[in-house]
Design brief:
By secondary structure, this protein is mostly beta strands. The protein is built from three helices and 14 strands. Strand 7 and strand 8 form a beta hairpin.
């Protein structure tokens, strides 16, 4: 965390890059053994406590003391997102998906009640439609313009005792079809209107459900 900054701003966490490799390996072995995990559901406007919950690995996720509230969600184009939320000089992109309704924008307030040396690994977050027929991962490219201090690492912290409101961009970046080159990817159109997002997977599955405005 950077010192001397305005209370409530989120900043890049100083985590080792090896964490990325560790997560990539461990995500492949999660859920190999069937077990009963109780699920708690939340809605828009509810505060969700991180507690001891984690998504992939408790040994590398240290966000206890954090709480999250989803204020709303919208479907936008990349250019609409940048025009509205960019805090740097980037207000548009030149790509074939620039004006495609392909970004699930989650308005979230994050507050840190007691965490001193941990933070949030944002790139572990994702949203799925209620129909479970798609998958939208945090779009670190777009999000880095909304939160320039965080950059594309998407790992950040909020100062203890402070809260920060941000707008997370989620998208499904893939090829446009079977005949499209694997090198030609773009943000795919979003047709769903209701979604869910996991805050933790263990020891309790905390799921927030919300719909477009």
């Amino acid at each position: 965390m950077l010192s001397g900054r305005r209370c409530g701003r989120i900043v890049r966490c100083a985590l080792l890059l090896i964490v990325v490799a560790v997560i990539a390996v461990r995500v492949c072995v999660v859920n190999l053994q069937a077990e009963h995990v109780p699920e708690i559901q939340y809605g828009k406007g509810d505060w969700v406590k991180q507690g001891e919950g984690y998504l992939i690995d408790r040994t590398i996720e240290h966000a206890d003391g954090y709480e999250y509230r989803i204020n709303g969600v919208k479907i936008m184009t990349p250019n609409q997102y940048l025009k509205k939320y960019s805090k740097d000089k980037t207000t548009s992109v030149r790509s074939k998906d620039a004006d495609r309704k392909s970004v699930v924008v989650v308005d979230m307030t994050i507050r840190n009640l007691s965490n001193v040396d941990g933070g949030v690994i944002g790139y572990l977050w994702y949203v799925v439609p209620d129909a479970m027929n798609d998958y939208y991962q945090l779009d670190t490219e777009l999000f880095s313009h909304a939160e320039p201090e965080v950059g594309e690492s998407a790992m950040f912290s909020v100062e203890k005792g402070c809260a920060h409101r941000t707008h997370l961009a989620f998208s499904n970046i893939a090829t446009d079809g079977f005949l499209t080159s694997i090198d030609e990817v773009s943000r795919q159109p979003v047709s769903a209107a209701s979604f869910q997002m996991r805050i933790s997977a263990r020891p309790e599955r905390k799921v927030v459900r919300f719909a477009t405005e």
